[in-house]
């Protein structure tokens, strides 16, 4: 069973999504980015569904942790550290699943019958093309990341490749 396809997300150029903050006006905006007089920058994300929200929420945790580290806070607290380590681990897992699915898709012929070359994929991933081919072969044979099911469930791609 697959979910109905939704319309593509709006382009930041065509449909900027401004954020507001009480009592302030941004001094500069560009697409979904705003810069505020107090030095804070904001970036508004658009997404469909809870899966994309999970990525946004976990990325927000990573940004908050990074900010706390860069602020020199010597005592972040056990709960803060645990929650952010958990969210960062989950974010990395989700991103790995997305990266692997894109790698599979890159080697599937498009409408013109073309595929992305191993060398181009290697350049994009920062790896030697033979390493990328070995990784692709492992993934295509079913050695996918455990979050592939999460990524592809209820989509036409769910059953294209074996999933561990």
Q: Strand sequence of the main sheet, in spatial order?
A: 1-2-3
Number of strands: 3
Rg, nearest Å? 20 Å
Bin the helical content. 40-55%
The parts where pLDDT drops under 50 for at least 5 residues are: none
Structural class: mainly alpha
Number of helices: 5
Shape: globular
Main pleated sheet: 3 strands, antiparallel
How much of the polypeptide forms β-strand, as a percent range? 5-15%
The chain-level mean pLDDT equals 88
Query: Terminal Cα separation, in Å?
Result: 19 Å
Order of helices and strands: EEEHHHHH
Which key terms come to mind for this protein?
mainly alpha; three-stranded antiparallel beta sheet; 46% helix; 164 residues
Question: What does this entry look like structurally?
Answer:
- The model has no long low-confidence stretch (mean pLDDT 88).
- Strand 2 and strand 3 (41-43) form a beta hairpin.
- The protein has five helices and three strands.
- It is mainly alpha-helical and 164 residues long.
- Helix content is 46%, strand content 5%.
- The chain has a three-stranded antiparallel beta sheet with strand order 1-2-3, with no helix packed on it.
- The radius of gyration is 20 Å and the shape is globular.
- The chain has helices at residues 49-70, 78-106, 118-125, 129-140, 148-152, and strands spanning 28-30, 33-35, 41-43.
